[in-house]
Specification:
The chain is an alpha/beta fold. The chain contains ten helices and twelve strands. Helix 2 crosses helix 10 and helix 5 packs parallel to helix 6.
Length: about 325
């Protein structure tokens, strides 16, 4: 008799406990979502999307968008993988935006994506792009850089880090960005105004590294100021500077910031960073989305402004 009762009680207990556990997990997840996005009381849902390597940048963009979210009665959700293992393609991120019926998307477009055909042609969501411009994307606005102002600020920052025996090297191993010609012209004109000696190094990473090392070995007393026009160049030069043999031989000014660049800056290896004002990018993106919703019009190209981080000289 006891065995029969036990046999009956086990499935009954399972039938009661499993729904309770399910309800608990649903409640917990819903509670977390509500705390993070405050979606319960908002009418609009805006997504900030991108890839893992741009996580740091996008967190700041999200912060700027979220700061003005109450103005637009909107919830802003950051949807960026926390690791490479969770990486999603741009296509799947936009498909997710369609699936959740987002009211607007702020999307980071990297250089590789910008060179490809956009995967979602019939996206019926206002999209603001940041990072790199891609004409294939059906975007209402692109929020980017003012390369003339960037060049002036890079030149001014390089000049401020110079001492008596300094020489400035402008490093550009990336030929993908057509705006770099404007950036380069402004830097060179500005440096001539400061009467500072400088040299432009273009080509592959290994070629540039060889030239930098040759300059160091030729004149051990000279300090080089390396103005790196991409995050990749900044990281590569930082790795070189990490070698004790070359420590203190050059200073690095980075044009652009990602998570790795920030890490090197915090360690004092990168001395200064000039980058797009990331929080203001998020704020402006929200304005463009809701201007478009209200007036069916948005600015096609928006300058977000610049940020300057300076470490020790």
């Amino acid at each position: 008799m006891k065995q029969k009762e036990t046999t009956i009680l086990i499935p009954v207990a399972i039938a009661i406990i499993l729904p309770l556990l399910f309800a608990f997990f649903v409640y917990r997840n819903f509670s977390n979502f509500s705390r993070e996005s405050d979606s319960v009381d908002r009418d609009f849902h805006i997504l900030v999307i991108g890839k893992t390597e741009n996580n740091n940048f996008l967190n700041n963009v999200y912060r700027g968008a979220d700061q003005v979210s109450t103005m637009y009665n909107a919830v802003v959700e950051l949807h960026v993988p926390s690791s490479k293992a969770e990486e999603s393609s741009l296509e799947s991120l936009f498909e997710y935006a369609e699936f959740v019926k987002a009211d607007g998307v702020i999307a980071y477009i990297d250089e590789e994506t910008a060179s490809l055909d956009f995967p979602v042609k019939n996206l019926d969501i206002p999209v603001v792009t940041i990072g790199n411009f891609c004409q294939e994307i059906p975007q209402i606005s692109f929020i980017g850089n003012n390369y003339s102002e960037s060049g002036k600020l890079l030149a001014k920052t390089a000049f401020e880090y110079c001492i008596g025996n300094s020489e400035i090297y402008i490093i550009n191993s990336s030929e993908k960005n057509p705006n770099y010609s404007n950036l380069m012209n402004t830097i060179t004109v500005s440096l001539k105004g400061y009467s500072m000696p400088f040299e432009i190094l273009e080509g592959s990473g290994p070629e540039i590294e060889k030239t930098v090392l040759n300059e160091i070995s030729t004149d051990s007393e000279k300090e080089l100021i390396l103005v790196c026009l991409s995050e990749e160049d900044s990281i590569h030069m930082s790795q070189l500077s990490s070698d004790p043999i070359f420590s203190g031989k050059f200073k690095i000014i980075s044009f652009g910031e990602n998570q790795t660049v920030t890490t090197y800056f915090n360690k004092g290896i990168i001395n200064a960073i000039v980058s797009v004002d990331q929080e203001n990018t998020g704020t402006r993106a929200m304005k463009e989305i809701f201007d478009y919703k209200k007036n069916n019009f948005a600015n096609s190209y928006v300058y977000a402004g610049l940020n300057l981080k300076k470490g020790e000289r």
